[in-house]
Amino acid sequence: MEIQLNGEPRTLSPEACLQNLITELNIGNQAIAVAVNRQVISRSMWSKHRLNHGDQVDVVRAIGGG
Q1: Is 24 contained in some domain?
Q2: pTM above the 0.85 mark?
Q3: Helix (H, G, I), strand (E, B) or coil at 1
């Protein structure tokens, strides 16, 4: 299946969940926020949230500064 990840096409296995994507990107240990179709998904729900063909996924990383 194909999704849009931060505006770019990305192909995933048909049964992928949000946690699979985060693991594949190797960013699970970072301070990030994830939205699917403009709805923020809490970290506790990543393993339960199934992705669908055409979903728009936005991953934003928090960057500290002052």
Answers
A1: yes
A2: yes
A3: coil
Inter-residue contact 12 to 51 (CB < 8 Å):
yes
Structure tokens at 16: 């992928």
Number of independent structural domains in the chain: 1
C-alpha distances out from residue 18 to 31, 39, 47, 62, 65, Å: 16, 13, 6, 19, 28
The answer for residues whose C-beta is within 8 angstroms of residue 31's C-beta and 6 or more apart is: 61, 62
Q: Which domain holds residue 29?
A: 2-61
Note whether residue 66 is domain-resident. no
pLDDT, tens digit, for every residue of 6-63? Answer: 999 999 999 999 999 999 999 988 899 999 999 999 999 999 999 999 999 999 988 8
DSSP string, 21-59: HHHHHT-TTS-EEEEETTEEE-GGGTTT-B--TT-EEEE
User: If you ran DSSP here, which 8-state letter would residue 17 be given?
Assistant: B
